[in-house]
Write a structure and sequence with these properties.
Rossmann fold, 42% helix, globular, 288 residues, four-stranded parallel β-sheet
Length: 288
């Protein structure tokens, strides 16, 4: 029996079922006898203000995938921590990759997994800036490989339970109360809630005028707002993070208002919706 003095004092990870980095070759072979389904989170390494870690999007994505994989046989295969984050580069520690790099890495990942017998792929985009990349990647896999790929958000949307809680009347997005609540549930030891601070946003006037429509989920307002907001300094749009908020929080609520209860409710909703989608996909394969 090893004592703590005989092993790495920083080691605290436990083996997780269906999590590829923890699995042996025989375990992958055994998995393939039951399922050909893979989920790949696409996250980011970018600033999340002073209270959330730079790896928030990657870690939260992986942790959600792990929870789903405890309910159904789906292989969790993260391969890239960083994503597309040029608008956060004024904050130390942020890393941004080109869309071409992100797509190439994941295309080669899928091609590798196909060689081993995997056929179906779910891409979970856990960073808003990767949305268009994920859509393109899914299409390229379907067009150019023997695999079949779907976008996680699109796939589970029909199975999500409606959120009947009162929505905030101000902008509340990156590193705000929602993301902080999810993080309190998914990675509690990495959240420093006592360091969270509210911010005052500074946006170009025409974008500021769109916020009421964005808050009310008006589709046109959201489309136009997100097409221009949160873009790199080099674009001249005056909407990089540092140009809009000194704290890095893209919202006007104090993240200290986040709660673990809210995060738990949201993530459990995502997991149950994921299970329903996976069951539906498995049923369609079984009946064909």
């Amino acid at each position: 029996m090893k004592t703590n003095a005989q092993i790495n004092p920083l080691w605290n990870e436990k083996k997780i079922k269906n999590y590829l980095p923890h699995m042996t070759v025989p375990e992958v072979d055994d998995f393939l006898s039951k399922s050909d389904l893979v989920i790949i989170p696409i996250g980011a390494l970018e600033q999340h203000s002073s209270h959330l870690p730079i790896g928030t999007d990657f870690i939260n994505g992986v942790e959600q995938c792990k929870l789903i994989a405890q309910e159904r046989d789906i292989l969790v295969a993260p391969v890239l921590m960083a994503g597309q984050s040029p608008y956060h580069m004024a904050f130390a520690g942020s890393i941004t990759l080109s869309a071409e790099t992100i797509v190439q890495v994941h295309m080669e990942t899928v091609e590798s997994l196909i060689k081993h017998g995997f056929k179906r792929f779910v891409f979970m985009n856990s960073h808003g800036g990767n949305r268009a990349i994920t859509t393109f990647l899914v299409d390229q896999i379907n067009q150019k490989t023997a695999g079949v790929a779907v976008d996680f958000g699109v796939a589970i949307n029909p199975f999500l339970k409606p959120d009947i809680s009162e929505a905030p009347q101000v902008l509340d997005r990156h590193a705000g109360t929602g993301e902080t609540s999810d993080s309190l549930y998914l990675m509690p030891d990495l959240v420093q809630l006592e360091k969270a601070t509210a911010t005052k946003l500074t946006l170009p006037k025409h974008l500021e005028n769109m916020i009421p429509g964005v808050v009310d989920n008006d589709p046109t307002a959201k489309l136009l707002f997100l097409s221009e907001a949160l873009k790199a300094e080099e674009t001249g749009k005056k909407t990089s993070t540092i140009e809009m908020t000194e704290t890095g929080v893209w919202g006007e609520l104090n993240p200290k208002e986040a709660t673990v209860e809210r995060g738990k409710k949201n993530i459990k909703n995502v997991v149950q919706a994921s299970v329903k989608f996976i069951d539906k996909w498995n049923e369609s394969i079984a009946s064909s």
